Amino acid sequence: MGKKVKKEAESPPKDVFDPLLIESKTPATAVLMLSSPENEVLAKACDALYKFASKGDENKLTLLGLGALEHLYKLLSHEDPIVRRNAVMVFGIMASNHDVKKLLRELDITNSLISQLSPEEDVVVHEFATLCLAHMAVEYTTKVKIFEQGGLEPLIRLLGSPDPDVKKNSVECLYLLVQDFQNRAAVRELNVIPPLLGLLESEYPVIQLLALQTLEVISKDRETRIILGENKGLDFLLNILENNELSDLHIEALAVLGNCLEDVHTLQLIQLTGGIKKLLSFLEISTVPGIQKNAAKAITKAAFDAEIRKILHWEEVEKFLLNLLETNNDEVKVAASQAISAMCGNIDSKSVLGLQGIPQLVQLLSSNNEEVKEAAVTALSNLTTASPRNASALDILEEINLSTKRKNKFSEAALEKLLDNNLSQKYSRMGYLSSSNIITNGFYDCGQIKHGKKFLSLEELSKQGLTDRRAIIFINAKPQENVVVEKAQDVSPSLSGTSSREKASSVVSPTEGKQELSGHISKSSTRGKGLRKGKGEKEEEKPKEVINITPQVQEEINVEHSHWLPPPDFILMDYINDASRTILPLTTTREQVVALAQFVADKMGGPVEIEKLHNFSWELQISEIEFELKCNIVPIGKIKRGTFYHRALLFKVIADRMGIGCSLVRGKYNRAWNEVKLVEDSPKGLLLPPQEYVVDLMFEPGCLMKQGTAKADQYKRI
């Protein structure tokens, strides 16, 4: 047997490079490797860059400066799935940097990222592609691109991903996208509600929170709220509120529910299932300021609808709002005050809230927080509008404003706002009506009232009979047969006078073009509601400088059972019609003011020489009218010889009906005057600021005296 010959091994091909392990400690080398034609090198380079970028913003900026993003952008469409995956990972981690996001927008990377969201892609690709999109979606132009490039549908689909990071990134991206109303409508069409509700059952709080925040934004649209109700979304929200283990989600859940309460149908649905009682019970025991604030905001939004106000009143929401006024949190007090303002649209709620709420709101005027004081002023104004019983907050505010220590701009503003709802009392107490204070039927001037003295209604004054005191000048340009009596149900706050009797005498005239008293009268039909404090709450110590007085409740007058009706003033009606016919056609406001001044002076005795003013005997004629009427209440049209304060009142009454802005100011010793603002003529066509003038109705009727001049000052004083 011959000897075996050992076979020689085959030599490797000469054109193949042996495997080489490359170790680099510089990112620049890794960036250079991104240009390699070998998939393995590309994958390892991307992995190294991912780890480097993960260490902080400084490293991200280093890679940005080395041009890594431009190379990585090309790899997003690489045929090798590992290379593509690793490249996406680098983008996902780097996109948190502001400068990186700027370059990514320039590269228009959104389309490439959206293409990575297909179902066939690896879950890691989904995770980092959605992460990158979420970082970029904070900017408006990127929102638009994601919408235009069809990114919403795959993002919604990925809400059902088995990977929690993908869910988190996708819902966060959607939350940012739906800040734009166009995207809100689009996600609704793509049926986003069911998967979002599904995320509420996630074991990860951050996912639940993002889902609720997204629902809060999209539920601002009524169509979305309807779909939310159809998918039993309200049950999801109420279940969260009932679960103490989910207390960290209560604020956001309440915000979504607050949007839902804006719809009557939704509120009725919640009411039928006992949801409102559950909700209010939950709110009454909660001491979390964020929950209390959101609850009050929800009530404010819901209460804009009259039907919803009725439902909320039936559920005794007033108790909850009154409790919130006593909390220690200023934001809660603001929200509660705003909710009270909104609920004032319901007359029964206004009655309940007025009894206990007015003293509490007056106390808030002493707060150190400007927003609290402003919200309290508005609530006080709404509570007293068209409500004589609530207007007795006036005494408390006057007491505060007389004290230099307790008075502040908000207490003064509150008093003026309350008086703006009762111009007769405002003029009597303050001696001033602005151009925005429109005198309507039912107004009366009973002279200056002293502090501490009760302001009497017109009916109370009518029962006094003849006295030797100053005549009460009454405005009523409506015939008696036009009195409208209605039972007030649910009314929104509107301009109003003082007494029910005044309101009964007023109806809106289509020719006057001004807001009149509406004539809504009702007996008190509300149930007394006690104030129940929440568990664990302590009553705040009331500020010492605020007097705690509960306003007395007085029954409003029912016109149907009254024996006295204010007399109509047919002469005043003629004055208004004549003045409108002859003065309104004049081309400029200045001409109208002059003509109206001459018209008023002519109706009240004509011009008077200043030296003979003491001989102008107007008192005798007024006494004769009082004797004729057997009453101290004198319709202004009957006065044929009027002095300063008669003429100034008549001027404002007619001017208000004609749309001529003017104020009415009371002086001393029977003086009163009107002030108007007029723009001077400019030869060059320039718009000059308006100048204020005092209108002469006595000596040179129609003469306009510039405010501050000696002539104007002389007219206002003896």
Topology at a glance:
Layout: H1 27-33, H2 39-53, H3 57-65, H4 68-75, H5 81-94, H6 98-107, H7 110-115, H8 123-136, H9 140-148, H10 152-157, H11 164-177, H12 181-189, H13 193-199, H14 205-218, H15 222-230, H16 233-242, H17 250-260, H18 264-272, H19 275-285, H20 289-302, H21 306-314, H22 317-324, H23 330-343, H24 347-364, H25 370-384, H26 394-401, H27 409-420, H28 423-430, E1 432-433, E2 444-445, H29 458-462, E3 472-474, E4 486-487, H30 500-504, E5 520-521, H31 570-583, H32 589-603, H33 619-629, E6 633-635, H34 644-658, E7 663-666, E8 672-678, E9 691-695, E10 704-706, H35 710-716
Helix pairs in contact: 1-2, 2-5, 4-5, 5-8, 8-11, 11-14, 13-14, 14-17, 16-17, 17-20, 20-23, 22-23, 23-25, 24-25, 25-27, 26-27, 32-34
What do you see in this structure?
- The chain is mostly helical.
- Among the domains are: 265-421, Leucine-rich Repeat Variant; 570-607 and 638-716, no CATH class.
- The chain has 35 helices and 10 strands.
- Strands 1-7-8-9-10 form a 5-stranded antiparallel β-sheet, with helices on both faces. Strands 2-3-6 form a 3-stranded mixed β-sheet.
- Strand 7 (663-666) and strand 8 form a beta hairpin.
- The N and C termini lie far apart (155 Å).
Task: Characterize this entry briefly.
This protein has 35 helices and ten strands. With about 725 residues, it is mainly α. The strands form three sheets. The chain has a five-stranded antiparallel β-sheet with strand order 1-7-8-9-10, sandwiched between helices. A three-stranded mixed β-sheet has the order 2-3-6. A two-stranded parallel ribbon has the order 4-5.
